[in-house]
Amino acid sequence: MTKNIVVIPGDGIGKEITTAAVNVLKKIASKYNWQLNFSYYDAGGTAYDKSGVPLPDETLAAAKAADAVLFGAVGGDKWDDVAPALRPEKAILGLRQGLGLYANLRPVKAMETLLEYSPLKPSIIRGTDILIVRELIGGIYFGERCESEEYKGTTRAWDLENYSIPEVERIVALALTTARSRKGRVTSVDKANVLATSRLWRKTAAETAKKYSNVQLDNMYVDNCSMQLAINPTRFDVIVTSNLFGDILSDEAAVLSGSIGLMPSASIGERTSLYEPIHGSAPDIAGKGIANPLGTILSAAMLLRHSFSAEAAAADIEIAVQKALADGYRTADIYSPEFKKADTLQMTQAVIDNIG
Ligand code: NAD
User: Fold this and answer.
1) Which one is catalytic: 32, 40, 141, 335?
2) Are residues 123 and 253 both part of a single domain?
3) pLDDT digits (tens, 9 = 90+) for 22-37
């Protein structure tokens, strides 16, 4: 297999953590005898400093042409005074739009070795393994809006939510397909007791699911879902939901596993998909070599699974991460004195050593 991966380190700890993930991918490439070609492009504040824009045309063009994109993080206090349209974070929106990244996938898995970091009791969090599938380029975040208008003698603002049947079909089909290689259950989350878009969403989800006889679909209201995530997270397998509800639920779910440094994500595009940890550029620890690389390394595992259909190699990385943690390695963000303190390089090496 020969594949071209565009790496966009970005700002802050971005370079450290993407270097870690690339080194793990190189180990996988040598194990499976693949040729993975890596090319590096700027985005965010680093790109702004060099070229005056957060997402240079050449970065977007390279990302579009790549087989997959590995992204670090962007942003930092240094660019606080930059004009809003040129802020580092605009690079993410530009990539989402440019690559048509219509779905965001966030796995939330409670690792046995890290149960103590969860805000939930071990008896509740143990065994949690959820994939949140969030619609990413539609709904209320992309609808018409009005910042201020006169209405009945006062001033009001509004945002319009709309979803079309093809938009819902596409995201629900992705959730159903993904569920086939998991426990085969999808929970579609909406607010169909109040919202018209949710009623269309629910009806379309049911229609779409008819083509997936081996996957079980159920529906849940978003308010109940947010409660169930905290009291009974093991009841879920795949959750599929709209842009707005997914934004909120995926952040709630992200804290369940305890450490932000460990959480990977995938943003699925029509052609090229993008993989990144959920955390930001952590300017407070940038350049110190102590960042937790596991979120980015696990994002690389998602890249292999979703872009290259390389399930065995993805599992190799995930098992190696669990073994490194079971061997007692901990970066500063998840360290306590009974463990072996590891910096970014040592943690990465512990993962590489556990890939057979
Ligand atoms: P952050 O996620 O960067 O950091 C929050 C806290 O978590 C910090 O204390 C940080 O040191 C710690 N942390 C984060 N990742 C870590 C890791 N891998 N290892 C160890 N500790 C880690 O969030 P923030 O401080 O709110 O934002 C910093 C900058 O990142 C801002 O400019 C923000 O806009 C940007 N940001 C970017 C993205 C992205 O690129 N996708 C996402 C979120 C925030």
Assistant:
1) 141
2) yes
3) 999 999 999 999 999 9
